[in-house]
Design goal:
CATH architecture of chain A: 4-Layer Sandwich
Structural class of chain A: alpha+beta
CATH superfamily of chain A: Chorismate synthase AroC
Shape of chain A: globular
Strand order of the largest sheet of chain A: 1-2-3-7-4
Largest interface: C-D, 106 and 106 residues
Largest sheet of chain A: 5 strands, antiparallel
Number of helices of chain A: 9
Oligomer: homotetramer
Number of strands of chain A: 18
Strand content of chain A: 15-25%
Radius of gyration of chain A: 21 Å
CATH topology of chain A: Chorismate synthase, AroC fold
Chain lengths: 359, 359, 359, 359
Amino acid sequence: MNTFGYLFRVTTWGESHGKAVGCVIDGCPAGLKIDHEFIAKEMQRRKPGGIFSSKRREEDVVEILSGVLDDVTLGTPISILIRNVDVDSSSYEKIRTVFRPGHADFTYWAKFGIYDWRGGGRASGRETAARVAAGAIAKLILKRFGIKIFGYAKEIAGIKFRVEDPEKAFEISEKSPIRCPDSEMEKLAEEKIVEAIESGDSVGGIVECVAKNVPPGLGEPVFGKLNAYLAYAVMSIPAVKGVEIGRGFEVSRLRGSENNDPIILKDGKIRFAKNDAGGILGGISNGEDVVIRAAVKPTPSISKEQRSIDWEKMEEVSVSVKGRHDPCIVPRAVPVVEAMVSLVLVDCMILQQIVPRKL
Amino acid sequence: MNTFGYLFRVTTWGESHGKAVGCVIDGCPAGLKIDHEFIAKEMQRRKPGGIFSSKRREEDVVEILSGVLDDVTLGTPISILIRNVDVDSSSYEKIRTVFRPGHADFTYWAKFGIYDWRGGGRASGRETAARVAAGAIAKLILKRFGIKIFGYAKEIAGIKFRVEDPEKAFEISEKSPIRCPDSEMEKLAEEKIVEAIESGDSVGGIVECVAKNVPPGLGEPVFGKLNAYLAYAVMSIPAVKGVEIGRGFEVSRLRGSENNDPIILKDGKIRFAKNDAGGILGGISNGEDVVIRAAVKPTPSISKEQRSIDWEKMEEVSVSVKGRHDPCIVPRAVPVVEAMVSLVLVDCMILQQIVPRKL
Amino acid sequence: MNTFGYLFRVTTWGESHGKAVGCVIDGCPAGLKIDHEFIAKEMQRRKPGGIFSSKRREEDVVEILSGVLDDVTLGTPISILIRNVDVDSSSYEKIRTVFRPGHADFTYWAKFGIYDWRGGGRASGRETAARVAAGAIAKLILKRFGIKIFGYAKEIAGIKFRVEDPEKAFEISEKSPIRCPDSEMEKLAEEKIVEAIESGDSVGGIVECVAKNVPPGLGEPVFGKLNAYLAYAVMSIPAVKGVEIGRGFEVSRLRGSENNDPIILKDGKIRFAKNDAGGILGGISNGEDVVIRAAVKPTPSISKEQRSIDWEKMEEVSVSVKGRHDPCIVPRAVPVVEAMVSLVLVDCMILQQIVPRKL
Amino acid sequence: MNTFGYLFRVTTWGESHGKAVGCVIDGCPAGLKIDHEFIAKEMQRRKPGGIFSSKRREEDVVEILSGVLDDVTLGTPISILIRNVDVDSSSYEKIRTVFRPGHADFTYWAKFGIYDWRGGGRASGRETAARVAAGAIAKLILKRFGIKIFGYAKEIAGIKFRVEDPEKAFEISEKSPIRCPDSEMEKLAEEKIVEAIESGDSVGGIVECVAKNVPPGLGEPVFGKLNAYLAYAVMSIPAVKGVEIGRGFEVSRLRGSENNDPIILKDGKIRFAKNDAGGILGGISNGEDVVIRAAVKPTPSISKEQRSIDWEKMEEVSVSVKGRHDPCIVPRAVPVVEAMVSLVLVDCMILQQIVPRKL
């Protein structure tokens, strides 16, 4: 189940401390011009850097091995290779028989009878580099259809950020080291992160992603609903524990008359007055902005002492996870959420035959 | 995309006011004894009834047409037929050219150029009858493995319900007309619903579902994560706008040291001290209770006047949806959430080879 | 695995002596006018009748339960129900613990630990009624695009039939009780069948199916090749033991210079001079007639005594299969092969976006 | 559609003259010891070499980038990379606007509006290197269950080879430069190939593959039949135009009483007396040898002059394909057929839960 998508299918592979991570994109339309610079920029956005993220140096050079001739896609599988550099497994060596709390060590062991103890292996956030690379290609397709994807932090460590216009929020957040779209609250959130770092701890937050200019008609009844597909996509990102569309959990406290979007005519077009539904009705896009939010848990790797199990000795131990970790994964999760949303939209657009087989 | 599941595959079909709804279950293990009484009881739980739900009379008799010989499954597809009785499309006739706000009329029209104007057609909650029938068969399998599924309302119209033990909550809620597990708050919630009815309006709420005795190892890296699969399953239910696992959105406000579950030894078994993770780590079950919550929007069908569009005349109109509607869909959504969770778990257990091909 | 197709997906269900057989068609484009008469006629073509086929009376009335409103498809699943009438399991009762040679009794038992002993259960040719119903709907779509499907017997009991023009062959064969397109050889083949009947035996043959006006570009590299997909489709029909495309096995004896189709310009179009390739190159249609042949084994049900096993007593026995069987299944296999070829072509045309989501 | 398999899924990628070809294997059981030497040996079997094959030098070094730790599989995707070395596109440059007869140039162009003119691109036999690598890992699994796969040429250029015992045939053929299992006829076949070479032409043939010790119960009703799956798998190999199981096309000329396999008891086991069915009944393995044959067309690349089209000028031209080609592809197709059969069997064994998730 390392493949995502119906017609635009992305298969990712690779372990955190293995030779490389990568993906194969199958079903990409032919005739797409590959903008290598854009892909590199997207990879850059996910890379660690700055005081608020991991110290691991990831070059994340995207090597395209197939499916592209003279920078144009052939309609055949695009194989993407991203070498793992600066891998350092030494800090894991000491705890290789200890399940790290909040991590997948135990569950992979329970499932497969074996797990890669080096840096989280397949369950590491490192895997998302391949998603961002695939998402970058999806975004190149979306661009051709005028669709824009804006992701940013909506909340960090309990500090909520105000957003009026998603596009502006995106622009501001891209200049913020923590992808905060609210200049007023940014300092407060950064202080919370610094506090966490100082106490060997970590914090979580919420990512919001808005897709503009999405055509109506995307999503498939009844199990391929656009909201179901998006929830699946975003919930598959490591550390995500909740997903909501439009006003999400809030709607459970509204009346029908408050929540229903009045349908109106605007410039001769059928539109929805408030878009509380987040651009989706009955599982199908209605032409308004698609809005999704993801709850991101605090990074489980903390240097604070925690209780756990040494599975070799089968006894309780105390463990402190050293390595190089992000005190708050939210900023780096933003481009990953964008990538997953982009993959879903492109796939739905091919299914709906809006994106043709040959561009 | 009317098929759900990898190996335990359920294909549902049918429109609200058509001849019937139903499903085909493909991949059900052979040798399962079919308990018709149990299936009938599950259908009963979803049926409308009482003052708090639609007045439509749905007999929901489950007719099994294939895949079963002498009440034992053959391993071949199980075809289930549920006739639609008491269908009355008259109230829809008057508004057949008007998109009902909050409904899928417009989006189906945008997607297919045509839609069934009678009672929501394929997008109606009626479709979930087939899910509950399939879920009942899934539950029969889960029972064989000691797994229990407990669903109930967690919140209605903003009134939060206290739950200590999911099993007890389930028992109490099953006696409540609104599936409320909190005897103290029940009246308050009912009053809110009555208020909504009286003003021609509706309310929403939150459903919680807990699966006990789930074995560790379920869920597939990286896109078949158990939480992603559950989110997809539950978000595909009509009216659901948000999904969360374990403590869900709350974790975004916690520190890593608060959120991480300490791993402990209990009776010689590896266990998780608090289960804030809701039974899932790295997308794979860890042996603790699997906990999921769904935000359910207020029923979009309300008799209050709303603004909308008549697509024939292409002009704005005022519309009041008469028909027979649930003022609050939460109580009836509970068995549907349970059904979807059951389908996911059985499918994952077959994938993990815990459930054999022949029982 | 009772579902066939990527985007035009047909799930069949039902046992030979159960209440009914049927299918769900998911992914049928919206806006298709359903021609009930045509569907009935296609069902008629598969029905037993005449001296050369089974005496079982199958009414094969197709009941459409969903997905169609006022005879037009909605884009939602089309559920088809075909009641089993005139079911007589008495002749099977006597041999219910004996595996019938050439049948699937043993293999279903080995797979599922249980099998439906009544008339072959799920493995019976009865299941193909659902395929023909689905195929009829596929043909309605193909018609809209000018594609015609012509099936007929190419050989029966070793008697080869000459075919010059597939369309004429089809017309002649439709008037023949054994679907023979060669008036000269028809009598000879019929004599062979009568001989087999008289000695309590059966004969086999070869079905040929030609699709005309297939657009170039159908089929997906590399595992969704059109020839691979067709082989899969046709080999899934009971009794088929071999499949070939174009000149098929003959090409293994040709030189490259003989086998390669010269590419020419004809009326300004790129065409292939001889079409020995059967309309497919590199797994993708080239615009010429798609030609496929299927080897059909002699009906395994024969009244002649055969050696077998009684699994209850675990001892060797002699068995004579009475029931009502076709002495030669080839004529009735013709519409089934046509149905499977039609399903493949429609699916590939949707994948290639030649058939739109809304017709 | 570059992915093959339900649970043991292989996604191949790469063009003939691109940087590399490769595949991702998803769903490989954890705990499998990777025998690198065996994989290298299998790659060697497919490599060109000797006077009867292409002069292209393919090192075919298999680099495993993920999914394996200390030579043991982790249950996560195995990414395989095979660099293309000795690529020479010069001979193609001259004919880059000419569709080569018998090749996929035209059909890829019709499908995608673009094609890789260098050596057949994605449609080249080069792609099968990735299949053989994946097949080698499948064979490592089959070995653990005592299943053996024997492939060899059954016929070349019309010269039929006698085979009594598949295992012996395999051993003899592995020493033959043309994979001929019949020492008597080998010279004759070689002469035919030499004749073809001398006249700038090519020849075809038939590959046979036998799987021994296949357990009963593999294959899924009704569209996942083992024979259908095998036909699909083998027909997806470039140059294959026909597939048959057991006695295949011959059965169409037999009587039921001749073709049916008597079921007998042998050493207390249920067995089939003659295995004309090729190990499959009703689409499910019966425990006897699985036997499949593939018709391989003569290599389309020939230096003889042929008629074709220059698509740039849209005019008829004469073309002679130079490059480095196999005069007969049959010997090199043998390990590819074996690989595809192995992939099918492993996948079916995982589906049937005979191969566990953790070995």
